[in-house]
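Minutes, project check-in
Item: structure for the 159-residue chain
Input as provided by the requester:
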Amino acid sequence: MIFGAVFFAVCAASLTWRAATNERGLILNGVITLTPFGASAFYWVLAGLSTLFVILEIVLAFARVRGAAFLELTVDTLVIPRGFAGKKFRRIPYAEIVAVSEFSVVGTRSLGIRTATRQYWVAATVLPSHEDYEALKRFLVATASSNKALHATAAAPGS
């Protein structure tokens, strides 16, 4: 997050300087031609967006430091963080878990936990280590398989 904030701060400063001192037009990919006024406006918009990203990075950093989200396994329930800062929690009874999937976005792995009525997502970043993430994944996959087998047995004719 610090790297992101520094990167966008440098972008914002550079684009602000460019917008304030611009005296030339701008051609984007040989398709869009901007006058000097249009080019300055374009630079101001980019500077503003970069500044918004700096603010967002700072807010996210404070939210993470202030209250780290955590995941909890109880005897019969998985408790996962939800919301912007992870201050609220959602309880998922193990008996309701019917499927578990995994996906990755830009190198961040997450588990998809499906119940009969909803899909929940748990990012690997709420766990202390890669090994803990893998152990949770194995546990939830086994739980979902067990629940499927239990439901199939209960639904079988003559049971």
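Outcome recorded: The longest strand covers residues 97-105.
No further action items on this chain.
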